[in-house]
Amino acid sequence: DMAMQMMSTEKFVELHMGCPAEGCPNVRNSTTAESKWYSSKCRGVISISQLGNLCCEHHQNGETCVYGRMCTFRFDCGLRGASSPHNDELSPYRSSDRASFSHALGFGIAFRYMTQTDLEWATRLLKAITEQYGTQ
Question: pTM of the entire structure?
């Protein structure tokens, strides 16, 4: 399967960031336990690769819950209220634009100790984000 072949060349790390949904004030919530993201299908922890692909921990074990380009994903951090874009209870999941995703991810990356390998991984991810949102 093509997805499994691609995954074998990718390095996935758990996705820790604030909410990347456009307009969500929860964007800076990247240093707490709540900054992990979970699949709405199986509740598995979501990881991101240097190529900008997201997958759940179960997919990494050969199951097929979630895998794909992060620009196609929609997010719900659970925040509700007047300033939240997630107030539609029937469909609280919101897409992210390049600026919102990069901003939220930047807070998550800023608080991690980065080796040279980590910096190269993060640089490749930022390029992938730009490429994905440029080709939506």
Answer: 0.74
